Amino acid sequence: MNRRRVIAAGIGGAVIGLAGCLSGSASEEALPDPVNLEGEFDTDHGMAIGPHGGANGQIFYRDAEPRDEGNPAWFHTLVHSLFPYHFDRLDRGWEPVVVYVTDFSRVDYTVRQRDGAPRMPSPTAPETFADATGLVYVAESDVMGGMGPALHPFSDQEEAQSFIDTYGGQMFDYEGLC
């Protein structure tokens, strides 16, 4: 059974392959709290989290040890790290408890020019993260993440629409990405 669906992100020819993001809900169990990612390094690529810009993420898996130190796995980009890593682990049978991503509705952010492109900040504090399933995502905007085209998550749909009105893009809910 092929769970994968491909959404063309458009900017720079990036392609985001997203599917089957959560294979179940942790409705009966207490969810772990997001952790502070300041000074940490990406589980998948070993990149420093924070200085590159854009949304960060962390995934807690049930009965799995994504890092030698245990849960969570953490990421400095959603498009190029979190989702590819997550899909690979789903294919291996790992069961996610919760996926947290930066919620730009919780952040007082400023889009700044860096390396010739507008960039989002990269907050790392626990209170800047939200459950990925309850957010909307802006793709194909002019605003880049740490490694180029990015997904910009928002819990407030009106804020996401305002972002699109200013920087372009399309809005997807979590299920639309999966």
TrEMBL record:
This is Nitrous oxide reductase accessory protein NosL. InterPro entries: N2O_reductase_NosL (IPR008719). The lineage of its organism: Archaea, Methanobacteriati, Methanobacteriota, Stenosarchaea group, Halobacteria.
